[in-house]
Amino acid sequence: MAEEQFDIILVGGGPGGYVAAIRASQLGMKAAVVEREHLGGICLNWGCIPTKALLRTSEIHHIMQNLDAFGLSADNVSFDIGKVVKRSRTVARRLSQGVAHLLKKNKVTVIDGAGKLAGPGTLAVTGKDGKTQTLKAEHIVLATGARARSLPGLEADGDRVWSYREAMVPTEMPKSLLVVGSGAIGVEFASFYHDMGAEVTIVEVMDRIVPVEDEDISAHAQKALEKQGIKIYTGAKVESLDKGADSVTATIDTGDGKEQITVDRVILAIGIQGNVEDIGLEGTGVEVVKSHVVINEWCETGEKGVYAIGDLVGPPWLAHKASHEGIICIEHIAGLDTHPLDTSNIPGCTYCRPQIASVGLTEAAAKEAGFDVRVGKFPFQGNGKAIALGDPDGFVKTVFDDKTGELLGAHMIGPEVTELIQGYAVARTGEMTEAELMHTVFPHPTLSEAMHESVLDAYDRVIHF
Protein backbone atom coordinates (compact mmCIF):
# COMPACT_ATOMS: atom_id res chain seq x y z
CA MET A 1 0.00 0.00 0.00
CA ALA A 2 1.30 3.40 -1.02
CA GLU A 3 1.27 6.17 1.57
CA GLU A 4 1.47 9.92 1.08
CA GLN A 5 1.52 12.82 3.55
CA PHE A 6 -0.51 16.03 3.19
CA ASP A 7 -1.37 18.95 5.43
CA ILE A 8 -5.04 18.66 4.55
CA ILE A 9 -7.25 16.27 2.58
CA LEU A 10 -10.66 17.14 1.19
CA VAL A 11 -12.96 14.14 0.70
CA GLY A 12 -15.18 15.26 -2.16
CA GLY A 13 -14.45 17.59 -5.06
CA GLY A 14 -17.70 19.52 -5.16
CA PRO A 15 -18.17 23.26 -4.57
CA GLY A 16 -17.22 22.79 -0.92
CA GLY A 17 -14.23 20.51 -1.35
CA TYR A 18 -12.49 22.03 -4.36
CA VAL A 19 -12.89 25.62 -3.11
CA ALA A 20 -11.54 24.64 0.31
CA ALA A 21 -8.58 22.89 -1.32
CA ILE A 22 -7.71 25.96 -3.39
CA ARG A 23 -7.90 28.21 -0.33
CA ALA A 24 -5.71 25.78 1.61
CA SER A 25 -3.12 25.85 -1.14
CA GLN A 26 -3.22 29.66 -1.20
CA LEU A 27 -2.38 29.59 2.51
CA GLY A 28 0.65 27.36 1.94
CA MET A 29 -0.82 23.98 2.82
CA LYS A 30 -0.13 20.82 0.88
CA ALA A 31 -3.66 19.85 -0.12
CA ALA A 32 -5.30 16.88 -1.80
CA VAL A 33 -8.83 16.33 -3.11
CA VAL A 34 -10.22 12.82 -3.19
CA GLU A 35 -13.11 12.47 -5.66
CA ARG A 36 -14.84 9.26 -6.68
CA GLU A 37 -16.88 10.59 -9.61
CA HIS A 38 -16.79 14.13 -11.06
CA LEU A 39 -14.85 17.21 -10.05
CA GLY A 40 -17.36 19.95 -9.37
CA GLY A 41 -19.70 17.59 -7.57
CA ILE A 42 -23.44 17.20 -8.02
CA CYS A 43 -24.03 20.94 -8.40
CA LEU A 44 -21.78 21.40 -11.38
CA ASN A 45 -22.38 18.03 -13.04
CA TRP A 46 -25.95 17.04 -12.14
CA GLY A 47 -27.53 20.05 -10.45
CA CYS A 48 -27.18 23.82 -10.52
CA ILE A 49 -25.31 24.25 -13.78
CA PRO A 50 -26.87 21.75 -16.23
CA THR A 51 -30.39 22.55 -15.02
CA LYS A 52 -29.80 26.24 -15.70
CA ALA A 53 -28.68 25.33 -19.21
CA LEU A 54 -31.93 23.40 -19.69
CA LEU A 55 -33.99 26.25 -18.24
CA ARG A 56 -32.31 28.72 -20.59
CA THR A 57 -33.52 26.58 -23.49
CA SER A 58 -37.07 26.41 -22.15
CA GLU A 59 -37.06 30.18 -21.56
CA ILE A 60 -36.14 30.80 -25.18
CA HIS A 61 -38.72 28.23 -26.32
CA HIS A 62 -41.39 30.04 -24.30
CA ILE A 63 -40.44 33.38 -25.87
CA MET A 64 -40.52 31.79 -29.34
CA GLN A 65 -44.08 30.68 -28.67
CA ASN A 66 -45.03 34.28 -27.80
CA LEU A 67 -43.18 36.27 -30.46
CA ASP A 68 -46.25 38.22 -31.53
CA ALA A 69 -46.10 40.22 -28.28
CA PHE A 70 -42.74 41.61 -29.50
CA GLY A 71 -43.86 42.25 -33.06
CA LEU A 72 -42.00 39.21 -34.34
CA SER A 73 -43.01 36.00 -36.07
CA ALA A 74 -41.45 32.65 -36.88
CA ASP A 75 -42.76 29.52 -38.54
CA ASN A 76 -42.28 25.87 -37.64
CA VAL A 77 -40.64 26.49 -34.28
CA SER A 78 -39.46 23.14 -32.92
CA PHE A 79 -36.71 21.57 -30.85
CA ASP A 80 -34.47 18.53 -30.79
CA ILE A 81 -34.43 17.12 -27.25
CA GLY A 82 -31.19 15.31 -27.98
CA LYS A 83 -29.46 18.59 -28.82
CA VAL A 84 -31.05 20.30 -25.82
CA VAL A 85 -29.61 17.67 -23.48
CA LYS A 86 -26.26 17.64 -25.31
CA ARG A 87 -25.87 21.39 -24.78
CA SER A 88 -26.61 21.00 -21.07
CA ARG A 89 -24.06 18.21 -20.69
CA THR A 90 -21.46 20.16 -22.69
CA VAL A 91 -21.83 23.13 -20.35
CA ALA A 92 -21.36 20.86 -17.32
CA ARG A 93 -18.33 19.12 -18.84
CA ARG A 94 -16.68 22.43 -19.71
CA LEU A 95 -16.98 23.67 -16.13
CA SER A 96 -15.82 20.36 -14.66
CA GLN A 97 -12.69 20.62 -16.81
CA GLY A 98 -12.32 24.18 -15.54
CA VAL A 99 -12.29 22.93 -11.94
CA ALA A 100 -9.57 20.44 -12.84
CA HIS A 101 -7.53 23.29 -14.34
CA LEU A 102 -7.98 25.44 -11.23
CA LEU A 103 -6.84 22.65 -8.93
CA LYS A 104 -3.79 21.96 -11.09
CA LYS A 105 -3.00 25.69 -11.24
CA ASN A 106 -3.12 25.86 -7.45
CA LYS A 107 -0.94 22.72 -7.08
CA VAL A 108 -3.68 20.67 -5.43
CA THR A 109 -3.24 16.91 -5.80
CA VAL A 110 -6.35 15.19 -7.19
CA ILE A 111 -6.80 11.53 -6.34
CA ASP A 112 -9.53 9.47 -8.02
CA GLY A 113 -11.29 7.12 -5.67
CA ALA A 114 -13.56 6.72 -2.67
CA GLY A 115 -12.13 8.01 0.60
CA LYS A 116 -12.78 6.43 3.99
CA LEU A 117 -11.51 7.40 7.43
CA ALA A 118 -9.07 4.74 8.62
CA GLY A 119 -7.83 5.99 12.00
CA PRO A 120 -6.49 9.30 13.32
CA GLY A 121 -5.14 11.44 10.48
CA THR A 122 -5.54 8.59 8.02
CA LEU A 123 -7.67 8.18 4.91
CA ALA A 124 -7.90 5.00 2.85
CA VAL A 125 -8.68 5.66 -0.81
CA THR A 126 -9.99 2.87 -3.00
CA GLY A 127 -9.71 3.46 -6.73
CA LYS A 128 -11.95 2.12 -9.47
CA ASP A 129 -9.37 -0.62 -10.02
CA GLY A 130 -9.99 -1.85 -6.48
CA LYS A 131 -6.52 -0.90 -5.27
CA THR A 132 -6.19 1.04 -2.01
CA GLN A 133 -3.71 3.69 -1.02
CA THR A 134 -3.28 5.36 2.36
CA LEU A 135 -3.13 9.12 2.75
CA LYS A 136 -2.04 10.95 5.91
CA ALA A 137 -3.00 14.44 7.02
CA GLU A 138 -3.44 16.32 10.28
CA HIS A 139 -6.71 17.70 8.95
CA ILE A 140 -9.34 15.80 6.96
CA VAL A 141 -12.43 17.63 5.67
CA LEU A 142 -15.48 15.59 4.70
CA ALA A 143 -17.35 17.15 1.78
CA THR A 144 -19.23 14.16 0.40
CA GLY A 145 -22.46 16.02 -0.28
CA ALA A 146 -25.94 14.57 -0.43
CA ARG A 147 -28.25 12.64 -2.73
CA ALA A 148 -31.93 12.52 -3.60
CA ARG A 149 -34.16 11.12 -0.89
CA SER A 150 -36.75 8.45 -1.60
CA LEU A 151 -39.76 7.20 0.32
CA PRO A 152 -41.12 3.64 0.51
CA GLY A 153 -43.19 3.04 -2.61
CA LEU A 154 -41.84 6.20 -4.24
CA GLU A 155 -38.47 5.02 -5.48
CA ALA A 156 -36.94 6.14 -8.76
CA ASP A 157 -36.41 3.36 -11.29
CA GLY A 158 -34.64 5.47 -13.93
CA ASP A 159 -37.28 4.54 -16.51
CA ARG A 160 -40.75 5.85 -15.76
CA VAL A 161 -40.04 7.25 -12.31
CA TRP A 162 -37.12 9.68 -12.42
CA SER A 163 -34.74 11.28 -9.95
CA TYR A 164 -33.18 14.60 -10.92
CA ARG A 165 -30.49 12.74 -12.88
CA GLU A 166 -32.86 11.08 -15.31
CA ALA A 167 -34.94 14.26 -15.52
CA MET A 168 -31.89 16.09 -16.88
CA VAL A 169 -31.21 13.67 -19.72
CA PRO A 170 -34.54 12.66 -21.28
CA THR A 171 -34.25 10.79 -24.56
CA GLU A 172 -37.73 11.97 -25.55
CA MET A 173 -40.09 14.63 -24.27
CA PRO A 174 -42.94 13.22 -22.18
CA LYS A 175 -46.39 14.50 -23.05
CA SER A 176 -47.45 14.46 -19.40
CA LEU A 177 -45.50 14.60 -16.17
CA LEU A 178 -46.08 14.43 -12.41
CA VAL A 179 -43.63 16.25 -10.15
CA VAL A 180 -43.67 15.07 -6.53
CA GLY A 181 -42.44 17.94 -4.37
CA SER A 182 -42.45 21.69 -4.97
CA GLY A 183 -39.13 22.84 -3.55
CA ALA A 184 -36.57 24.47 -5.83
CA ILE A 185 -35.80 21.25 -7.73
CA GLY A 186 -39.45 20.38 -8.22
CA VAL A 187 -40.68 23.73 -9.53
CA GLU A 188 -37.62 24.18 -11.76
CA PHE A 189 -38.28 20.87 -13.51
CA ALA A 190 -41.99 21.69 -13.64
CA SER A 191 -41.16 24.97 -15.40
CA PHE A 192 -38.73 23.36 -17.83
CA TYR A 193 -41.00 20.55 -18.95
CA HIS A 194 -44.11 22.73 -19.11
CA ASP A 195 -42.37 25.40 -21.19
CA MET A 196 -41.18 22.63 -23.51
CA GLY A 197 -44.76 21.49 -24.07
CA ALA A 198 -45.50 18.84 -21.45
CA GLU A 199 -48.69 18.78 -19.37
CA VAL A 200 -47.40 19.10 -15.78
CA THR A 201 -48.93 18.35 -12.39
CA ILE A 202 -47.26 19.18 -9.06
CA VAL A 203 -48.12 17.46 -5.76
CA GLU A 204 -46.89 19.08 -2.54
CA VAL A 205 -47.47 17.64 0.94
CA MET A 206 -47.24 21.06 2.62
CA ASP A 207 -50.08 23.58 2.44
CA ARG A 208 -48.23 25.73 -0.13
CA ILE A 209 -45.60 25.37 -2.83
CA VAL A 210 -41.98 26.46 -2.35
CA PRO A 211 -42.74 26.22 1.39
CA VAL A 212 -39.41 27.64 2.61
CA GLU A 213 -40.25 30.97 0.99
CA ASP A 214 -42.32 33.85 2.36
CA GLU A 215 -46.05 33.07 2.22
CA ASP A 216 -46.73 35.95 -0.18
CA ILE A 217 -44.10 34.58 -2.56
CA SER A 218 -45.58 31.07 -2.39
CA ALA A 219 -49.06 32.37 -3.11
CA HIS A 220 -47.91 34.42 -6.10
CA ALA A 221 -45.82 31.54 -7.45
CA GLN A 222 -48.79 29.18 -7.33
CA LYS A 223 -51.06 31.64 -9.13
CA ALA A 224 -48.40 32.26 -11.79
CA LEU A 225 -47.75 28.56 -12.42
CA GLU A 226 -51.45 27.72 -12.48
CA LYS A 227 -52.08 30.58 -14.91
CA GLN A 228 -49.47 29.01 -17.19
CA GLY A 229 -51.43 25.76 -17.09
CA ILE A 230 -49.60 23.73 -14.44
CA LYS A 231 -51.98 21.82 -12.14
CA ILE A 232 -51.03 21.99 -8.46
CA TYR A 233 -52.17 19.96 -5.46
CA THR A 234 -51.13 21.26 -2.03
CA GLY A 235 -51.69 19.56 1.31
CA ALA A 236 -51.68 16.37 -0.74
CA LYS A 237 -49.74 13.12 -0.75
CA VAL A 238 -48.86 10.61 -3.44
CA GLU A 239 -49.87 7.30 -1.91
CA SER A 240 -48.71 4.97 -4.68
CA LEU A 241 -47.29 4.77 -8.18
CA ASP A 242 -48.60 2.00 -10.41
CA LYS A 243 -46.30 1.54 -13.39
CA GLY A 244 -47.79 0.56 -16.72
CA ALA A 245 -46.11 -0.38 -19.99
CA ASP A 246 -45.09 3.19 -20.71
CA SER A 247 -46.97 5.24 -18.14
CA VAL A 248 -47.48 5.66 -14.40
CA THR A 249 -50.77 5.96 -12.54
CA ALA A 250 -50.47 7.92 -9.31
CA THR A 251 -52.97 7.71 -6.48
CA ILE A 252 -53.14 11.08 -4.72
CA ASP A 253 -54.66 11.73 -1.31
CA THR A 254 -55.83 15.31 -1.76
CA GLY A 255 -57.07 15.69 1.80
CA ASP A 256 -60.65 15.75 0.50
CA GLY A 257 -60.48 12.32 -1.05
CA LYS A 258 -58.41 10.29 -3.46
CA GLU A 259 -57.73 10.95 -7.10
CA GLN A 260 -55.84 9.05 -9.76
CA ILE A 261 -53.89 10.56 -12.62
CA THR A 262 -51.97 8.77 -15.35
CA VAL A 263 -48.83 10.38 -16.75
CA ASP A 264 -45.94 9.42 -19.00
CA ARG A 265 -43.28 10.07 -16.36
CA VAL A 266 -42.87 11.00 -12.69
CA ILE A 267 -40.09 13.16 -11.22
CA LEU A 268 -39.33 12.71 -7.52
CA ALA A 269 -38.18 15.91 -5.81
CA ILE A 270 -38.84 15.12 -2.17
CA GLY A 271 -35.65 16.27 -0.53
CA ILE A 272 -32.12 15.03 -0.04
CA GLN A 273 -30.09 13.04 2.48
CA GLY A 274 -26.45 13.30 3.40
CA ASN A 275 -23.84 10.87 2.04
CA VAL A 276 -22.70 9.60 5.43
CA GLU A 277 -22.33 5.95 4.44
CA ASP A 278 -19.03 4.23 3.65
CA ILE A 279 -16.80 7.12 4.74
CA GLY A 280 -15.54 5.47 7.93
CA LEU A 281 -17.61 7.29 10.55
CA GLU A 282 -18.14 4.14 12.59
CA GLY A 283 -16.10 4.12 15.77
CA THR A 284 -15.28 7.83 15.53
CA GLY A 285 -16.56 10.79 17.51
CA VAL A 286 -18.44 12.08 14.47
CA GLU A 287 -22.13 12.51 15.31
CA VAL A 288 -24.79 11.97 12.65
CA VAL A 289 -28.35 13.26 13.04
CA LYS A 290 -30.97 12.59 10.36
CA SER A 291 -28.30 11.64 7.81
CA HIS A 292 -26.24 14.79 8.37
CA VAL A 293 -22.95 15.29 10.21
CA VAL A 294 -23.06 17.56 13.27
CA ILE A 295 -20.46 20.36 13.34
CA ASN A 296 -19.67 23.46 15.39
CA GLU A 297 -19.32 26.99 14.01
CA TRP A 298 -15.82 26.16 12.65
CA CYS A 299 -17.02 23.02 10.82
CA GLU A 300 -15.31 20.77 13.38
CA THR A 301 -16.89 17.38 14.09
CA GLY A 302 -16.66 15.46 17.35
CA GLU A 303 -13.54 13.68 16.05
CA LYS A 304 -10.26 15.57 16.43
CA GLY A 305 -8.81 16.60 13.09
CA VAL A 306 -12.01 15.73 11.16
CA TYR A 307 -14.21 18.48 9.71
CA ALA A 308 -17.33 18.52 7.54
CA ILE A 309 -18.87 21.07 5.18
CA GLY A 310 -21.61 21.54 2.60
CA ASP A 311 -24.72 19.46 2.00
CA LEU A 312 -23.26 16.75 4.24
CA VAL A 313 -23.89 18.96 7.30
CA GLY A 314 -27.42 20.05 6.42
CA PRO A 315 -29.42 23.03 5.23
CA PRO A 316 -29.42 25.25 3.42
CA TRP A 317 -28.36 22.78 0.73
CA LEU A 318 -26.71 25.31 -1.55
CA ALA A 319 -23.43 25.29 -3.44
CA HIS A 320 -22.47 28.80 -2.34
CA LYS A 321 -23.05 27.84 1.28
CA ALA A 322 -20.71 24.85 0.86
CA SER A 323 -18.01 27.01 -0.71
CA HIS A 324 -18.19 29.60 2.05
CA GLU A 325 -18.12 26.92 4.75
CA GLY A 326 -15.02 25.51 3.10
CA ILE A 327 -13.30 28.91 3.25
CA ILE A 328 -14.24 29.38 6.92
CA CYS A 329 -13.03 25.89 7.80
CA ILE A 330 -9.66 26.34 6.09
CA GLU A 331 -9.03 29.83 7.43
CA HIS A 332 -9.85 28.69 10.97
CA ILE A 333 -7.41 25.78 10.61
CA ALA A 334 -4.79 28.26 9.37
CA GLY A 335 -5.35 30.46 12.43
CA LEU A 336 -6.74 33.42 10.53
CA ASP A 337 -9.24 35.83 12.05
CA THR A 338 -12.33 34.54 10.27
CA HIS A 339 -16.01 34.67 11.15
CA PRO A 340 -18.56 31.87 11.62
CA LEU A 341 -21.19 31.49 8.92
CA ASP A 342 -24.49 33.32 9.45
CA THR A 343 -26.90 31.20 7.43
CA SER A 344 -29.52 33.96 7.53
CA ASN A 345 -27.29 35.95 5.17
CA ILE A 346 -27.21 33.20 2.55
CA PRO A 347 -29.42 34.04 -0.44
CA GLY A 348 -31.52 31.31 -2.01
CA CYS A 349 -32.50 31.24 -5.69
CA THR A 350 -35.08 29.22 -7.61
CA TYR A 351 -34.98 29.41 -11.40
CA CYS A 352 -38.55 28.54 -12.28
CA ARG A 353 -40.65 30.96 -14.33
CA PRO A 354 -41.14 33.42 -12.66
CA GLN A 355 -37.84 33.30 -10.77
CA ILE A 356 -37.78 33.37 -6.96
CA ALA A 357 -35.03 34.68 -4.66
CA SER A 358 -34.77 35.52 -0.98
CA VAL A 359 -32.44 36.24 1.91
CA GLY A 360 -33.05 36.53 5.64
CA LEU A 361 -36.27 36.09 7.57
CA THR A 362 -39.73 35.75 6.11
CA GLU A 363 -42.36 38.11 7.50
CA ALA A 364 -43.87 35.29 9.56
CA ALA A 365 -40.48 34.20 10.94
CA ALA A 366 -39.60 37.78 11.86
CA LYS A 367 -42.84 38.18 13.80
CA GLU A 368 -42.36 34.80 15.45
CA ALA A 369 -38.88 35.95 16.54
CA GLY A 370 -40.48 38.87 18.34
CA PHE A 371 -39.71 41.71 15.95
CA ASP A 372 -42.06 44.58 15.31
CA VAL A 373 -41.86 44.67 11.55
CA ARG A 374 -42.34 47.14 8.75
CA VAL A 375 -43.07 45.58 5.37
CA GLY A 376 -42.63 47.13 1.96
CA LYS A 377 -43.79 45.79 -1.41
CA PHE A 378 -43.34 46.95 -4.96
CA PRO A 379 -44.78 45.22 -8.05
CA PHE A 380 -42.75 44.83 -11.23
CA GLN A 381 -45.75 46.18 -13.12
CA GLY A 382 -44.63 49.56 -11.77
CA ASN A 383 -41.09 49.09 -13.09
CA GLY A 384 -40.25 50.51 -16.52
CA LYS A 385 -37.54 47.98 -17.35
CA ALA A 386 -39.79 45.01 -16.51
CA ILE A 387 -42.54 46.41 -18.73
CA ALA A 388 -40.06 47.00 -21.56
CA LEU A 389 -38.87 43.41 -21.22
CA GLY A 390 -42.45 42.20 -21.49
CA ASP A 391 -42.08 40.49 -18.11
CA PRO A 392 -43.81 42.61 -15.42
CA ASP A 393 -45.18 39.74 -13.31
CA GLY A 394 -44.04 39.60 -9.69
CA PHE A 395 -42.93 41.88 -6.88
CA VAL A 396 -40.24 42.70 -4.33
CA LYS A 397 -40.95 42.47 -0.60
CA THR A 398 -38.73 43.80 2.18
CA VAL A 399 -39.06 43.21 5.92
CA PHE A 400 -37.51 45.65 8.43
CA ASP A 401 -37.21 45.87 12.20
CA ASP A 402 -39.38 48.87 13.07
CA LYS A 403 -37.18 49.78 16.05
CA THR A 404 -33.72 49.71 14.46
CA GLY A 405 -34.30 49.84 10.70
CA GLU A 406 -32.41 46.54 10.26
CA LEU A 407 -33.21 44.72 7.03
CA LEU A 408 -34.55 41.43 8.39
CA GLY A 409 -35.38 39.82 5.08
CA ALA A 410 -36.00 40.36 1.38
CA HIS A 411 -38.16 38.27 -0.91
CA MET A 412 -38.61 38.51 -4.67
CA ILE A 413 -40.51 36.85 -7.46
CA GLY A 414 -40.20 38.02 -11.04
CA PRO A 415 -37.72 38.74 -13.85
CA GLU A 416 -34.04 38.08 -13.08
CA VAL A 417 -34.56 38.30 -9.32
CA THR A 418 -31.87 35.64 -8.86
CA GLU A 419 -29.40 38.29 -10.03
CA LEU A 420 -30.96 41.07 -7.96
CA ILE A 421 -31.03 39.35 -4.56
CA GLN A 422 -27.31 39.82 -3.99
CA GLY A 423 -27.93 43.52 -3.42
CA TYR A 424 -29.95 42.70 -0.34
CA ALA A 425 -27.43 40.03 0.72
CA VAL A 426 -24.70 42.69 0.69
CA ALA A 427 -26.97 45.01 2.67
CA ARG A 428 -27.56 42.37 5.34
CA THR A 429 -23.90 41.40 5.56
CA GLY A 430 -22.92 45.07 5.80
CA GLU A 431 -25.63 45.63 8.45
CA MET A 432 -27.19 48.43 6.45
CA THR A 433 -30.44 49.99 7.64
CA GLU A 434 -33.32 51.47 5.69
CA ALA A 435 -31.53 54.84 5.70
CA GLU A 436 -28.51 53.61 3.71
CA LEU A 437 -30.77 51.73 1.30
CA MET A 438 -33.00 54.76 0.77
CA HIS A 439 -30.00 56.99 0.07
CA THR A 440 -28.44 54.53 -2.38
CA VAL A 441 -28.93 55.71 -5.96
CA PHE A 442 -30.32 52.91 -8.14
CA PRO A 443 -29.75 53.29 -11.90
CA HIS A 444 -32.64 53.86 -14.29
CA PRO A 445 -34.08 52.03 -16.11
CA THR A 446 -33.26 48.81 -14.27
CA LEU A 447 -35.15 46.04 -12.52
CA SER A 448 -33.19 46.96 -9.38
CA GLU A 449 -35.29 50.10 -8.98
CA ALA A 450 -38.06 47.83 -7.67
CA MET A 451 -35.75 46.98 -4.76
CA HIS A 452 -35.40 50.66 -3.87
CA GLU A 453 -39.13 51.28 -4.17
CA SER A 454 -39.89 48.33 -1.89
CA VAL A 455 -37.67 49.86 0.80
CA LEU A 456 -39.39 53.21 0.32
CA ASP A 457 -42.79 51.54 0.57
CA ALA A 458 -41.92 50.07 3.98
CA TYR A 459 -41.59 53.65 5.22
CA ASP A 460 -44.56 55.10 3.32
CA ARG A 461 -42.35 56.87 0.78
CA VAL A 462 -42.95 54.82 -2.37
CA ILE A 463 -42.89 56.96 -5.51
CA HIS A 464 -43.94 54.93 -8.54
CA PHE A 465 -46.94 52.97 -7.29
Descriptive notes:
This protein is an alpha/beta fold. 31% of the residues lie in helices and 26% in strands. The chain has 13 helices and 24 strands. The strands form 6 sheets. Strands 1, 2, 3, 4, 5, 6 and 19 form a 7-stranded mixed beta sheet that branches. α7 (215-228) links the parallel β10 and β11 (231-234). α1 packs parallel to α8 (319-333) and α3 packs antiparallel against α4. The longest helix has 25 residues, at 81-105. It is globular. The mean pLDDT is 96.
Q: What share of residues are in beta strands?
A: 25-35%
The total beta strand count reads 24
Level of helix content? 25-40%
> What's the average pLDDT?
96
Tell me the structural class: alpha/beta
Number of helices: 13
Net shape? globular
CA radius of gyration is 24 Å
The CA-CA distance between the termini, in Å, is 71 Å
Oligomeric status: single chain
Could you outline the blueprint of secondary structure elements for this entry?
Elements lengths: L2 E9 L5 H10 L4 E5 L5 H6 L1 H17 L16 H25 L3 E4 L1 E4 L4 E5 L5 E11 L3 E3 L12 E2 L1 H5 L7 E5 L3 H12 L3 E6 L10 H14 L2 E4 L2 E7 L4 E6 L4 E6 L1 E4 L3 E3 L13 E2 L2 E2 L12 E3 L10 H15 L14 E3 L4 E6 L2 H6 L4 E7 L4 H6 L5 E7 L5 E8 L2 H13 L4 H6 L9 H10 L7
Parallel strand pairs: 1-2, 1-6, 2-3, 6-19, 8-15, 9-10, 9-15, 10-11
Antiparallel strand pairs: 4-5, 5-6, 7-16, 12-13, 13-14, 17-18, 20-21, 21-24, 22-23, 23-24
Helix pairs in contact: 1-8, 3-4, 3-6
